[in-house]
Amino acid sequence: MCLAIPGEVVELDPARPEVAKVEVSGVRRMINVSLLGQSPPVTGDWVLIHVGFAMSKIDEAEAKAVLALLDGIGQSYQDELAAIRESGME
Prior knowledge:
This is HypC/HybG/HupF family hydrogenase formation chaperone. The protein is of the alpha+beta class and 90 residues long. It has helices at residues 60-73, 75-87, and strands at 5-12, 19-24, 27-32, 46-50, 53-58.
């Protein structure tokens, strides 16, 4: 089973159009957006992220619903977010 997590695009680098900085529940990471093809993201877009790649764009309402569901999972999701924060990767 694969899980894609919604993230909001918060920063773009014109020198590297294949990457974007996204925020997921307060954690910011650089991800690859090249799989979005002809529909590159803009700041404020929401994308589904799987293993560091944006798989598709989604609307904000859907993103927030999924994040609420994940938050409802409880401690397992919080532990995963903590591990990502502690990794220091950005």
